[in-house]
Amino acid sequence: MRIALRIALAASAAMLMLGSAHAEDKVLKIGTEGAYPPFNNLTADGKLSWLEVECLGACCNAPMTR
């Protein structure tokens, strides 16, 4: 019984990996509220600081993301 369970789990894992191998690129959405100083800062007009926007942009431009 244990061997059959292991084979079934291995087959399920293989099918899951094969299904995602040819998946289309997804859009990565990042949200922040700017409420965790010193990591997030808001300017006087309520917008995210330049550094915060640049860091999020660097994450989005990493390989395999769009």
Automatic annotation (TrEMBL):
Lineage top rank: taxon: Bacteria
Query: What does the UniProt keyword field contain?
Result: Signal
Q: Which GO terms describe its molecular function?
A: oxidoreductase activity
Q: Read off the InterPro entries from this record.
A: NuoE-like, Thioredoxin-like_sf
The residue range of the signal peptide is: 1-23
Question: This chain belongs to which protein, by name?
Answer: NADH-quinone oxidoreductase subunit E
The species this protein belongs to is Stenotrophomonas nitritireducens
